[in-house]
């Protein structure tokens, strides 16, 4: 018998935990950058269309798969998918739903630890008196492990371990006593902090507190629609990708949370409520902070330059400097709110990443909650240390790409086919509607069966063979040169190898060779973890056979 | 702000906020289901006990 006797405390708690799982740093850092790079206000059209035909169906699929598996005492994807498909290989496909979480948690907790550290630095006034270069170099110093900014040796490592200990301790308290309690505190605080910063983002006036431009300049930049972009497959691919990552689908966390819901209780309305809560945080709050504030102080040209490096640079290297322009006290408050908001966004997601592994050990090997939680912390620490120690060698990015990007698309595609075509759409539809507190529109039966899998296949193929510069017109006319961001060229390390071939400076050549080594080593490590989990699934299968459960 | 940006921004924000509030209110106002249900906090709620 499974040692798993977990339960949610309340329905609102479950929705906040699910919304917290979806709301992550990407809501504040990735969405606005994607929007400005893909048609400004026009981006919202493909974005919302993808939410309706891919995001919502995937939420319903994962919630119902989870609840269905939970009925048979399964709380992690290997045996959740095993209950839905007859073939013995399905459970190994389900390994993705544990592996992704462990691998993502390994680098995500490091990111989360930066936010925790920056909350302290905002309180201590570390950024006061620094110019923009100073704040940017502070970040570089922080992630260079040997240096310290607080006088604490190996500061980044210390904060990473602190963050991991906090996550593990909360996980050891259980679903209702730990995860749900954090969501009930973290999500309302996140929204309050976000609303305060959004208000600041909307009320910047040129000439006041060092600002060079009104908020309107940044908001125009972000929201002015460029409708010509609507015909670009790259923009639709970016929108589909953003919907994908923002909802935390294809990870196995939603399945795990939903597996603790009984079949007579609603999932259809719960999924909609949590999904739209995530959209509110992303579209309303996420769009109102990073870009308007940055442009208010730095102007469009500079921000365009900075967004090429992604939202992380703006968040950690630029905003702390801009907050100091509001005065010492308000600057500190804004810093605490910004990094506090990111911390809550991060921790509610990283906690979700721990639950599939814990559920698996409880279900299959009768582990108690506490040792299972601490084993998660230990594995994440071991797997995460390379991202901390070799951050400058691309280990962090490698984990993010394979576990946090490619794996999600693959698993979501496979689970959608499983749900709609193997398990069967009629049974799947009954699962979605069982105990539902809303009427699910019938059109979704068609969307889930045909539209969502095709869209996911398109996202996957689009990522596998992305043409150079995203120029699909040129590619389809016969001149198909792969971009360095395509999965195929990533596997071949094309970008690194070209840089290596072009480099002449021995120091740069050495750096690139080391990076290539660490990139390949990261992949071997990630594959080893996947195989290790698959071996555990096999052991669990053998145990089930011995116990007569199969 | 220019008109098109303002229309897109306000339209999107009002739509998303409205739907978020609508679905959350539906959750809060959903009729309670009899015990045993999935949630611990209402286990002793007299209104939710299944009638024999």
UniProtKB/TrEMBL annotation, chain A:
The chain crosses the membrane at residues 12-29, 41-61, 89-108, 152-170, 182-199, 235-260, 280-300, 329-352, 373-395, 401-425, 446-465, 521-541. Pfam families: SNF (PF00209). InterPro entries: Na/ntran_symport (IPR000175), SNS_sf (IPR037272). Keywords: Membrane, Transmembrane, Transmembrane helix, Transport. It is found in: Membrane. It is a multi-pass membrane protein. One of its GO terms (cellular component) is membrane. NCBIfam families: Na_transp. This is Na+-dependent transporter, SNF family.
Automatic annotation (TrEMBL), chain B:
Keywords: Membrane, Transmembrane, Transmembrane helix. The chain crosses the membrane at residues 6-25. This is Uncharacterized protein. It comes from Pontibacter chinhatensis.
